[in-house]
Design goal:
315 residues; Beta-Lactamase; five-stranded antiparallel β-sheet; DNA-binding; DNA-binding protein; MLTR_LBD; Lambda_DNA-bd_dom_sf
Length: 315
């Protein structure tokens, strides 16, 4: 059985790293709001909201401002000011109406409220470093046959068990600032081989970063991470520009593991009490499936690797 040291904590996104100069002060909620609304309009067609399109081919895709304003029950001038971040004290009723017309998801609706009402949400210039509670570390060790890890507000992997390390790679061998799902997904070529549907994984990671950016617009470390990825990854720039928002959730993931081959796993993500920005994610296979047997093999190999390491070697 893996020892308690198999579940390890890591710092929350390289505090010693200086932010990218252009993003040193964090993200601009006004610019974020404008781009978010524009991209939400662009993804809708008139027919999606019950309107007939008699104008032929449109120069710009999506709903026009005047169409959205009409459906939301506000004037075109007022909505235009709002989309350009020039309207103040927009009521919750108006925001709810705009959200309804744009068919926003729950995560997108929450994101809109934070961007449109920044003064109504308590913010910290620099969120405190996240620490994983000892009881959670014990839980990870107790779940040794189940791949499980804790991750935080910037997609940092904060703690994990040995089976998760066997499944996703040796996180202990990475520098603390590299234990980050966004950096791994976009900057580590091995991730494109591991995740069979890499585009879906990348989309989820970016959506979760965008959701976090709405919560902590003044987080310079998050802004630094976004700046780094924007400079180094064309795929990240493309997905970030879409302004899609996602919460950590559940679903199915398909992997192509270098040791055990193809895996189909289900995952669940649960918010941890005490810090709602820390989440525990676990993976399991369908009972009796080849993937379940592959997970057993990985758990066994991970336990053997733990035993064989010399004392003091990171696990």
């Amino acid at each position: 059985m893996a020892t308690h040291r198999a579940a390890r904590t890591g710092p929350s996104a390289a505090p010693e790293s200086a932010p990218e100069p252009a993003l040193r002060e964090g993200l601009d909620p006004r610019a974020e709001l404008s781009e978010f609304l524009r991209t939400r309009r662009a993804r809708l067609k008139p027919a999606d909201v019950g309107l007939a399109d008699h104008s032929g081919r449109r120069r710009v895709p999506g709903l026009r401002r005047e169409e959205l304003a009409q459906l939301a029950g506000v004037s075109v001038a007022y909505y235009t000011r709002f989309e350009q971040s020039n309207a103040r004290n927009v009521s919750r009723e108006v925001l709810d109406a705009i959200s309804r017309v744009l068919k926003l998801s729950d995560a997108e609706h929450a994101h809109l409220l934070r961007l449109a009402q920044p003064k109504r949400h308590q913010r910290h210039p620099e969120p405190p470093r996240q620490q994983v509670r000892p009881a959670v570390l014990e839980l990870l060790t107790a779940m040794e046959g189940v791949p499980a890890y804790v991750w935080g507000r910037r997609a940092d992997v904060l703690a994990w068990n040995q089976t998760a390390s066997a499944l996703f790679g040796d996180w202990a061998a990475r520098a603390p600032q590299e234990r980050n799902w966004a950096r791994i997904t976009f900057l580590d070529p091995a991730s494109r081989k591991l995740f069979t549907d890499w585009e879906s994984k990348a989309y989820d990671v970016v959506g979760q970063l965008r959701f976090g950016a709405g919560l902590h617009a003044d987080d310079s470390l998050l802004a630094s991470l976004i700046g780094e990825l924007s400079l180094k990854s064309e795929d990240f720039r493309r997905l970030w520009a879409a302004h899609d928002v996602k919460k950590k959730t559940h679903g199915t993931m398909r992997l192509s593991h270098p040791l055990v081959g193809k895996l189909t796993l289900r995952y669940e993500t649960l918010a941890l009490p005490g810090d709602q920005e820390q989440s525990l994610t676990t993976y399991h296979a369908e009972p009796g499936s080849p993937s379940e047997e592959a997970l057993r093999l990985l758990a066994s190999w991970g336990a053997d690797a733990t035993k064989e390491r010399p004392a003091g070697t990171p696990q």
